[in-house]
Design goal:
single chain, 197 residues, alpha+beta, Glutaredoxin, 4 strands, 56% helix, 2-hydroxychromene-2-carboxylate isomerase activity, 2-hydroxychromene-2-carboxylate isomerase, glutathione transferase activity, NahD-like, GST_Kappa/NadH
């Protein structure tokens, strides 16, 4: 039986974006299933007492450079969003709504939203911009906006976030392979090794 990589992430995390650019190929090459687990990073920070590295001046400066290094290494486009930090509650609920109602289009939604935030630098806290991005990706933005208010969508995101915290997650991205936790997009080599074992 093939292994599974659970990918706990938040769209507002630049490291989640970088991990997302690598994990599909990594999992395909290893014959593993990639399971996307949307979570609300702000709630994880609150529950664990953690905070974004960008909130610490010296660490934030270093992080920007380090993210750029990895984007270059991976050969992927990346622009640090000028509207960071981003309140992702609505965006993460949107993803969960797609996951529940249009699972076959989840990858399309994920790609469109990550692209808008971390490549195009769009202000995704603006509902008009969000609707434009979704419409350009072929989604019914109005229908999705209605779905994010559904109790099932809210509960699913909350449950995934609470599960992440219970399992030891303190930041994004975090991957699990056979119960082993790997934090950070710079730990994908360990994920790859875990899939070989």
């Amino acid at each position: 039986m093939s292994k599974t990589v659970e990918f706990f992430f938040d769209l507002g995390s630049p490291a989640s974006y970088l991990a997302h650019t690598q994990l599909p190929d990594l999992c395909r090459d290893a014959g593993a299933e990639l399971v996307y687990r949307p979570m609300l990073l702000g709630a994880v920070f609150q529950a664990t007492g953690n905070a974004s590295p960008a909130m610490i001046l010296a660490k934030g400066r270093y992080m920007l450079r380090d993210l750029a290094r990895f984007a270059e290494r991976y050969g992927v486009p990346m622009r640090f969003n000028p509207h960071f930090p981003i309140n992702t509650l609505t965006l993460m609920r949107l993803l969960v709504a797609v996951q529940l109602h249009q699972p076959e289009r989840f990858d399309d939604a994920l790609q469109a939203l990550f692209q808008a935030i971390w490549v195009e630098g769009i202000h995704m806290g603006d509902p008009t911009k969000v609707a434009e991005v979704l419409t350009a990706a072929g989604f019914d933005a109005q229908a999705l906006q209605a779905q994010i208010a559904e109790p099932a969508v809210k509960d699913a995101l909350k449950a995934s976030t609470e599960e992440a915290v219970k399992r030891g997650v303190f930041g994004a991205p975090t991957c699990f392979v056979d119960g082993e936790m790997f934090f950070g997009q710079d730990r994908l080599d360990f994920v790859r090794e875990a899939l070989r074992d």
